[in-house]
Design a protein that fits this description.
alpha/beta, Rossmann fold, four-stranded parallel beta sheet, three-stranded mixed beta sheet, 9 strands, 42% helix, 12% strand, oxidoreductase, NAD(P)-binding protein
């Protein structure tokens, strides 16, 4: 959030706004998200999406790619996720909206409420985006990339929030194991898909998953023990119907467009850990 504020201030000092920034551009990729711990996160998530969509329409952008989230499709760990069919872009996380709306004061004080806020904000923002495109028919083609949990080598500054899951496991912290296993994607594949979506006709008007591998915590922990035997890696969690990830996503189109193969889970984990200062014994 600090980086975003610094960038926004720099634009303001130069007298620039979204519309002028988009001038002469043909495509826009919108990957931004407000600070989850700030006030009025849901409204800020909606506003940050809609402001950009409207600005892009005014200057004649031809293709708009929005970063969604798997949490707008389903509530990770929920027993209500269909397991007898593929999850597709037609699914929406109605459960996440309800969890946010009905959260008690006690729940609002717990860490899980941050997830409820995130789910609600992303569902509502994306729905408003699709409605805006339908009603206003802007000049651009619209598509949404739906990433799973994203890990990637950290390039600079504070690590991304999703990397805290990995950091915890490398230091013996069991907190991550409270999270339901889900699909993991290397952010480099996710970024590649965002760029491809700017040109790919098959992506137009679709919600397309960027979710390379369904995993369980035991698989992740096994990779960590192999490469970091001196680290206090937690023991495998108890058997659970949610571990490994029990649902299946429709990722055929995305898999084809990344070249038929995703960056492997082991490579993703090892290179991400290296960026956090952890050297593999294989190096």
């Amino acid at each position: 959030m600090v980086k975003a504020e610094q960038l926004r201030s720099a634009y303001e000092r130069e007298g620039m706004d979204f519309e002028s920034a988009f001038t002469s551009a043909d495509g826009v990729i919108h990957p931004a998200l407000p600070d989850l711990f700030s006030e009025a996160v849901v409204n800020k998530t909606i506003d940050s999406t809609m402001t950009t969509l409207r600005a892009a329409a005014k200057v004649g952008i031809k293709r708009f790619v929005l970063s969604g989230t798997l949490a707008a499709i389903l509530a990770p760990g929920s027993p209500n996720i269909p397991k007898d069919r593929l999850i597709t872009g037609d699914d929406w996380n109605e459960e996440g909206i309800e969890l946010y709306r009905t959260a008690s004061d006690e729940v609002k004080k717990s860490p899980i409420y941050t997830l409820y806020v995130y789910m609600a904000g992303k569902v509502q923002a994306e729905r408003e985006a699709w409605n805006y495109v339908k009603v206003n028919q802007p000049p651009y083609e619209f598509t949404v990339v739906i990433p799973g949990n994203s890990w990637v080598p950290n390039l600079f500054g504070e690590p991304a929030a999703s990397l805290t899951w990995l950091t915890n496991l490398l230091t013996g912290d069991l907190t991550s194991l409270c999270m339901a296993p889900t699909y993991i994607v290397d952010v480099r594949d996710c970024a590649k898909l965002h760029v491809i979506w700017l040109f790919e006709p098959e992506a137009v008007g679709n919600r397309v998953f960027a979710a390379g591998y369904l995993v369980g915590w035991s698989e992740v922990l096994s990779i960590l023990r192999k490469h970091y035997p001196d680290q206090p890696i937690p023991t495998n969690p108890p058997a659970s119907p949610n571990d490994p990830c029990p649902f299946r996503l429709h990722i055929a189109l995305a898999t084809k467009l990344v070249g038929g193969e995703w960056i492997g889970l082991e490579r993703c984990i090892v290179e991400s850990a290296a960026s956090l200062g952890h050297r593999s014994v294989a190096e």
